Amino acid sequence: LERTYAMVKPDGVKRGLVGEVLRRLEHKGFKIVGMKLMQIPRATAEEHYGEHRGKPFFEGLVSFITSGPVVAMVVEGENAIAEWRKMMGATNPKDAAPGTLRGDFAATIDENIVHGSDAPETAEREIGIFFKPEELL
Ligand code: GTP
Ligand code: MG
Q: What is the ipTM of this complex?
């Protein structure tokens, strides 16, 4: 079993898509082992998106992700990292297939509803940024 860091971004929370995201995760058979509603502090956002520091969209990305509450989750299941990325769809919603969350609900690359770790090392790092070990049940 694998764990990944999954998140409903501020646009997803504002648009009332938390239930839809949870429904899809649960119906797929994933287990939610950690979950909280939070507003991400700026420093945490910069750490989370550290790989993008210096890129032209970095400031906008940090502003967006700190602009309102997110739902932070740790999701567990078979091949959870890759499976959750598949359910999210392509980063740019214009390329995201119908049936994926981004394909069905997002319109622009700047506000694309959900996040998921992209590799095992990333998952471990991101889970550690957002959750204390005792918050995972
Ligand atoms: P996250 O789950 O948010 O990490 O998305 P991702 O893993 O599919 O994409 P990536 O980590 O490469 O980029 C993080 C976020 O930066 C994306 O979700 C986009 O919102 C934004 N982003 C990435 N590339 C671009 C780009 O070329 N232009 C713009 N405007 N935003 C970008
Ligand atoms: Mg990413």
A: 0.94
Q: What is the CATH number of the domain that holds 122?
A: 3.30.70.141
Q: How remote is the CA of residue 115 from the centroid of ligand 2, in Å?
A: 7
Q: What is the pTM of this model?
A: 0.97
64 is written with which tokens?
Answer: 């967006």
State if residue 111 touches ligand 1 by the CB under 6 angstroms criterion: no
Give CA–CA dist 62/41, Å, rounded. 10
Please count the structural domains in the chain.
1
Q: How far is the CA of 118 from the centre of ligand 2 (A)?
A: 6
> How does pLDDT run across 5-54, given as a tens digit for each residue?
999 999 999 999 999 999 999 999 999 999 999 999 999 999 999 999 99
| Residue 72 structure tokens | 């932070």
Q: Which domain holds residue 103?
A: 2-135
Q: Which atom of ligand 1 is nearest to the CA of 111?
A: 20
